[in-house]
Amino acid sequence: MGAIKNIVSDFINSLKNSKRVLTGILTVLFMFAYEYFGLEEKGIARESVNNAVMTIVALILGDSIRSVNPEKVE
Description:
- This protein is mainly α.
- It has a domain at 19-65.
- The chain is 72% helix and 0% strand.
- The protein contains 3 helices and no strands.
- Helix 2 runs antiparallel to helix 3.
């Protein structure tokens, strides 16, 4: 039982630090908000939402390759 707890704990810790999980969650949230609030009816195109998500994803992934903040230490 202890081994299973360790595996689950390690899995959850890896999810917390995963850039891919973060980008996936952001994508889902943006698309949910787009549909839920009916942003298309308010003049916001789906392509605009996709571009916003892509920009955020690029910033997150770019920061993991080369830090935006040079003081950042990992």
